[in-house]
Design goal:
The longest helix has 6 residues, at 105-110. Strand 4 (30-38) and strand 5 form a beta hairpin. Helices cover 3% and strands 62% of the residues. The chain has 174 residues and is mainly β. It starts with a strand and ends with a strand.
Length: 174
Amino acid sequence: SDLVVKADLTPSTLELAPVAWSKPPGPRASAELTVEFQGDQVQRIRGLRVAAPGLSFDGAVDFTGPAWVVDVAAAGLGETRLSGRVRPERTGYAATLRGPLLDLGRLIETGALDGAGAAGGGAPAGGQAIRLDARFDRVLLGQGRELVGVAVLLDLDGRGRRQVRAEGRLARGG
């Protein structure tokens, strides 16, 4: 059986602190999803959509395998546009992200990438390991600086050790 949820998030405060995004009460926002059950067990969450100023998400979560998997059909945060997959892996998480544009300008400007934690490039909170395989056509760095043809392999082991391999080219004004 299925449970369909539609929520008006307009009166809600929403925040994604690691990426310096928030929405106060008032601006229009919504979420919808369909939860698929087999007996009393959740099998999948389909049609998971969130829309708010500067934020969009369209994806699904599958609980039928040995571990859950989040499939991101399309996501947007500011100028960023991406798709991908996130899943648990050993002592942390693995993510594969692809997209035409990753906008790091605001994160660099606000210092969100300078602090501790996963977003800051240090060890993720709670000792969680993170493995990231990302490829973007363009990466905006702010102040007119831009990289093109960017591929990044990032491994954070959850104990403060990291390994990064990155490739890309400077673009106009880079």
